[in-house]
Design a protein that fits this description.
seven-stranded antiparallel β-sheet, about 30% strand, 15 strands
Length: about 290
Amino acid sequence: MCRWNAYYGQPLIIDELLFQTEHGLIDQSLHSRMGVETTNGDGFGLGWYGELGGDPCRYRTVTPAWSDVNLRDMASHIESPLWLAHIRATTGTPVQQTNCHPFQHGRWLFVHNGVIAGFQQMRRELLLAVDPELFDGIEGSTDSEVLFHLALTFGLEQDPLGGLERAVGLVEATGRAHGIEHPVQMTIGISDGERLWAVRYSTEGHSRTLFISQEASALRALGNERLERLGDEDRAIVSEPLGDLEGVWLEIPESSAVIVQPGPDEQRPFRPQEPESVPTPKTGATTW
């Protein structure tokens, strides 16, 4: 499996949460406490947005996060109001740059921790369900990237949670047809540069861990001087807490989604729904 972090708020040097916290993502790449694997060394990815908007930038590499000197240099100089970072532990697909998260489509970024069980059995059917206009955007071989493009196919850009619910519904329906009992295991991070969506869900109802920071005092409690200026709009979402202080992190409930945005954040149930139609591979028309 994998681990990921995301940050939303006033511009912050990325290094502050990746490297400078007690149990930041770089430490988790070697010493994960809550993941399936202790070591997540099959690649690293970072996607971040500038203060002036526009499409995000990405840095992806197959070098393990703990030994990437370029990452250490970059992270101490990049200041961003919204970013997602991901360390990878492959579930069987090759260790290559195109398989490293975040995946991108225009202004959208997507990270995933989990697995589509039986993906190789379902791969052809799931790929054929991707909108033909989006198909060439799939560069790697992971289940995560296919799930992202299915969500785009089912309307993620207009309705992020609805698009993902329909994509997961399709995967579960396809899994049932193949006799796969629990096809989906996931925590998901999505952003368009203006909001941050985080989802925790699995078919079996026992999902990978995911946490959100409480009010700004929680992030300030992590002990870095630069974090002292954080305000009540600033949030971090993490696969596992960045330190051992009590009261800093709230576990995101099972089968739920959190939306971090200007003003009050939202929490909603996440309910997969089988889509009524999918694009056909030849014409783009819909059928089921």
